[in-house]
Write a structure and sequence with these properties.
2 copies of one chain form a homodimer. In chain A, helix 1 runs antiparallel to helix 5, helix 5 packs parallel to helix 11 and helix 8 packs antiparallel against helix 9. In chain A, a hairpin with a 2-residue loop joins strand 14 and strand 15. In chain A, the strands form 3 sheets. An 8-stranded mixed sheet of chain A has the order 1-5-6-11-10-9-7-8, sandwiched between helices. In chain A, strands 12, 13, 14, 15 and 16 form a 5-stranded mixed sheet that branches. The first copy, chain A, has a 3-stranded antiparallel sheet with strand order 2-4-3. Chain A is built from 15 helices and 16 strands. Helix content of chain A is 39%, strand content 21%. By secondary structure, chain A is an alpha+beta fold.
């Protein structure tokens, strides 16, 4: 055989066992979200290039897949003339555009489910792909904290339905972060840049953050932040009243305490305030959440309140909160646990060449009527090898025809092969 | 409000009711295919541009969405240098590439399910979109007719599971078409072009086909074909032995008769031989099938045997048959029937501002534990208008809190609004 072709660079095929696990997980998640009254929508996989490029997506807007304009009669002299569309890099930009397009046809507040592929032309690396699946819920048009509580509760239930194991919801608030930074002495105009450094805390530690902060001058501010980070690093409990700098926004603190208490009480979810949680996205305006899996390092989901993005596009102020499950991460965790996807019997029905095909179809249909999976195959000359391949592929029984009727199902045993 | 933005030209958003119907239909189809032992795979939405451009897709290869190469440092002087990928226009080219990539990890014959979006930059027109969903099954590596029978049976069962109504499977064979054309007197080298004309029979009729065939010369051949087409047009039964030109491939005829008989006998599906069925695709080598809905004009699916395409790519001859459900058409038919998607109760739980959010979450969870959908909403000042909106959105009951406990569910009635 000539050399096997590959999928495009940084992308991958999904084999049957992988798709089966994904479908199981996605159906469980969608069922839970549906029971909360969230409604699924779909948007095109492409959006106008200006909308993507001018969005709040930070560095994601620099790694777009761009689509050539159709019907070009002459080769253009610049990219600007030649490109009109791009592949979406997340589901939030399309959601904002969808809401602006269709809000008059939606029940408000709109409780949205979206899932599907997104695309980022990142440098390929282990476990990261250029096409991957996201799974988001958002509530648009609700300013009160009920929205946050519902998103966190629904997402927690969805993860439980996936039997992912124990996890903790970490909570913070954009106004806590901003007020903390100015309370220790930075200018409001420096806040965004300081927070980008703080976002690296879990990678570079208190000392690393301190070192990078010195570039902003104001060493007393850097020292004050370092003291807080070292307390967190030590594992000692942070007492907000005592340990947060005077001037930290206490209303925002109360908000995340209320969210955390409601979720912990009602849904039995572990929650934790984490005053270093930033989550990169500059568009957050209120509560920020992240799901930390207790065994696997790193986050398996996150979100927050973003009250300004929708209005920018639609011209109508629209409060919004979103929560995204890290679907690829979830699949990875559950793959490593070898979840048993097969529940029903899987029967291989082997028939000899020359059998009346109406008989084959009728017998198979009769077996399927008992609720089992039935695959029909021409009987191979090497019966033993054929049964071994079927066993490896997850089939549990096989039958053949005797006098035009199927034999009793005979078990296929992995060990005996 | 500023003017509402639109999805990209020729594309569309799917609203919640549309997505719900699609998900229901797709799950029913996938469940049936799964019971036949077909296995779902996924391939990336993009493939290398050469693979798409050089494929057997006919005019589809001229309406590709092309993707700009990443990391261009200078603006290229031609399209060839600037484009490396394209959006897939069907699921067959990716399947062929997938099989060449992964065949050593698959149970052979490989029984594949694929569903997902495909893209064609056609001129936008009513009911046709530039992104749409396909849903295919294929059997790769099986040369015998059992494969054809299984595809037709499985697809028929899937359509029944969707409650689409009555349909007929039309059958033909590539070798019948080719032999018929040469039997009346055309050169083998003219066959492909003559068949492209014949493919228009249902639009332009026997006289129209005859007129276009005169361009090929050989008026006696054109007259002979016209006689057959007029017989078909008249609605009289075609007796292959009497009406097909002497020299028509009788082995091929027997093949489709066997397929038709097996499917009709075993699965109770109506079948019909149609010697004018061409289905455009030049890559078919054997049986060709199309599903004709008895009420709605036009096809709701089709397929055939294509024994040469996979080998061209993989270097290993691999017989193949495929059947594609016209998913968008199916959705359209079932939308017009107003299928009742909602089966369980849908309850709106209205709580006043200031309610303890832990109580809201706990009460909602208790209601959901009874298996119903529960949406929580802040109670609006105008209760009547709020209930009316919820009713329109498909909610069947509402509850509120009284002394911290939910009231009995009160029905929402469409008529009373």
């Amino acid at each position: 055989m000539s050399q096997r072709p590959s999928p495009p660079r940084g992308m991958r095929d999904l084999l049957p066992a992988e798709v089966a696990l994904r479908r199981t997980l996605l159906n469980r998640i969608l069922d839970v979200y549906g029971r909360f009254g969230f409604e699924q929508i779909e948007t095109p996989l492409v959006e106008e290039i200006e909308r993507l490029s001018n969005s709040d997506g930070g560095e994601n807007t620099t790694i777009l897949f761009k689509i050539l304009r159709r019907g070009l009669t002459e080769w253009p002299t610049s990219e600007g003339e030649s490109v009109d569309l791009g592949l979406r890099y997340d589901l939030t930009v399309p959601l904002a555009r969808f809401f602006a397009t269709n809000s008059n046809q939606l029940l408000l507040p709109f409780k949205s489910i979206q899932t599907g592929p997104v695309f980022r032309a990142e440098r390929p690396q282990k476990g990261r792909y250029r096409q991957f699946t996201q799974c988001d819920i958002d509530i648009l048009g609700e300013a009160s904290l009920g929205a946050e509580v519902e998103l966190v509760t629904a997402t927690s239930e969805a993860l439980r339905a996936c039997e992912v194991g124990e996890f903790t919801i970490r909570l913070n608030h954009r106004r806590i972060l901003e007020s903390m930074v100015t309370a220790v002495g930075y200018e409001p105009s420096q806040a965004a840049a300081v927070l980008i450094v703080l976002d690296k805390f879990d990678k570079i530690g208190a000392a690393g953050v301190h070192e990078q902060l010195l570039a902003f001058g104001n060493s007393s501010a850097a020292t004050a932040l370092r003291a807080l980070l070292e307390r967190i690093e030590s594992g000692d409990a942070v007492d907000p009243g005592r340990d947060l700098p005077a001037g930290t926004d206490l209303d925002a603190l109360e908000e995340i305490q209320r969210i955390g208490n409601a979720v912990a009480t009602a849904a039995g979810v572990k929650t934790e305030l984490d005053f270093t949680l930033v989550r990169g996205m500059g568009y957050y305006t209120g509560a920020i959440f992240e799901i930390q899996h207790d065994e696997f390092k790193g986050s398996i989901g996150g979100g927050g309140r973003y009250d300004r993005m929708i209005g920018k596009l639609s011209g109508v102020d629209t409060p919004a909160v979103g929560f995204s499950i890290g679907f690829e991460r979830l699949v990875h965790i559950l793959e490593s646990r070898a979840i048993e996807a097969t529940t029903s019997d899987r029967i291989a029905f082997l028939y000899p060449q020359g059998t009346d095909l109406a008989v084959v179809a009728r017998v198979a249909a009769a077996l399927r009527a008992e609720g089992v999976v039935v695959r029909t195959d021409l009987a191979a000359k090497n019966r033993k090898a054929q049964l071994s391949r079927l066993t490896d592929a997850g089939f549990t029984h096989w039958v053949e025809l005797r006098d035009g009727n199927p034999t009793a199902a005979q078990p296929l045993q992995k060990d005996s092969q």
